Amino acid sequence: MRITRKEALHLLKDSDLLELAERADNDRKRLHPGGVVTFVVDRNINYTNVCVNRCRFCAFYRDAESPDAYLLSRNELAGKIEETLEQGGTQILLQGGLHPGLDIGFYVDLLRFIKGRYRINVHGFSPPEISYLASRHDLTVRETLEILKESGLDSIPGGGAEILSDRVREVLSPRKIKTGEWLKVMEEAHLLGMRTTATMMFGSVEGPEDIVEHLDNLRTLQDKTGGFTAFIPWSFQPGNTELALEVGSQKSEVRSGNLSRVTRYSLRDMHPATAVEYLRVLAVSRIYLDNIKNIQASWVTQGLKMAQVALRFGANDFGSTMIEENVVAAAGVRYRVSKKDIITAIKSAGFRAAQRDTYYKILRGF
After folding, report:
1. Phi, psi dihedral angles at 169 (to 5 degrees)
2. What is residue 92's three-state secondary structure?
3. Phi-psi category of residue 213: left, alpha or beta, with phi > 0 → left and psi -120 to 50 → alpha
4. 317: part of which helix (H) or strand (E)?
5. How far, in Å, CA of 154 to CA of 121, rounded?
6. What does the pLDDT average to over 301-318?
7. Contact 269/205 with Cβ under 8 angstroms?
8. How far is CA 223 from CA 145, 187, 240, in A?
9. pLDDT at 141 (0 to 100)
10. Mean pLDDT for the chain?
11. How many Cβ atoms are within 10 Å of 113's Cβ, its own excluded?
12. Are 198 and 228 in contact (CB under 8 A)?
């Protein structure tokens, strides 16, 4: 029997950590009885770092006029894809900011360029990017997705979710789409037969109730569509972000006005999630999201050793080899691992390693 929001909140706040781990591990065993832990070989390609949202937790974005702003050329993009394929990659994670100079024609041409040259899955364009294009061209979300899908978009990553609570989003990213719009993009994608992932960034200004609200939003949509392939919780990395600077100087105002609009939250109370908090959130996610089969460990933010521990807290997937990663690295966190490192880590944790594709089809075991 699935747990309620009230029970999830209790587990998150008051449960014994090892008992919680055992419960999550049992759920993992039930869903994945073979003891196989999967990973995918891919590359995160950020085609641009220009973004009008200017989220306060993001160290990656640049204004269009910034000397550090960029837009990848076709030759640069081709080189990255070819290197990925040479290393046995099966997908690229293609994301960027909300660039005011790029219309939907750019995205259509980009997808056709990739699909016309390479056999690789394009896992691309998070809900904020899709919603931005729809609004800019006076299209519905469904119409926008249909255009992108026809041009070669295969699946959609769960970026831009952060915490699916508008109270939190008002603090972290007041210009970004709200919870309902993020869920709408995912629902429309699922109804078109596209599979997507879901993410959660925690450890900033949210409370336990907000984490449970996020999980419940995902579980409710998954009950309706069944379109999520995996859930990836990861912890906020404050380095080089506006949010961290404001906390450090104990500022109490956000760029758009006075913080009194969101008095439930205090920037001064913000603290990055500890390893124990990460494991607790991961375990509760596994237990609560009984209809999402796969849960990823985040070695990108937690490191290889903690990702191994996560495999006993409900995770069954090691995520990606990430031949390239830029967004978390911009915050000063640079864990880098090879395919061999991942295989060794999985095996030494007592599991069997297997390479998968975007849709969790196993390609080969190790």
Report:
1. -60, -30
2. strand
3. alpha
4. strand 317-320
5. 6
6. 94
7. yes
8. 21, 11, 38
9. 98
10. 87
11. 16
12. yes
Cβ pair 299, 335 in contact under 8 A:
yes
CA distance 315 to 219: 17
**CA 84/CA 43 separation, integer angstroms:** 6
Residue 61: CB atoms within 10 Å: 22
Average pLDDT on 29-57 reads 86
CB burial string 212-231: b at 16+ within 10 A, e below = bbbbbbbbebbeeeebbbbb
Rg over CA atoms, the chain? 20
- Angle of helix 104-117 relative to helix 141-151, nearest 10 degrees, comes to 30
The amino acid sitting at 87 is Q
Tokens of 343: 């295989």
Alpha-carbon span 299 to 301, nearest angstrom = 5
Domain boundaries, the chain: 5-359
Cα–Cα distance measured from residue 159 to residue 125, given in angstroms and rounded to the nearest whole number: 8
**pTM exceeding the 0.85 threshold for the entire prediction:** yes
Sign of CA dihedral 276, 328, 160, 238: positive
Record: fold of 5-359: TIM Barrel (3.20.20)
| Ramachandran angles phi, psi of 91, nearest 5° | -150, 160
Q: Is the torsion defined by CA of 322, 324, 328, 331 positive or negative?
A: positive
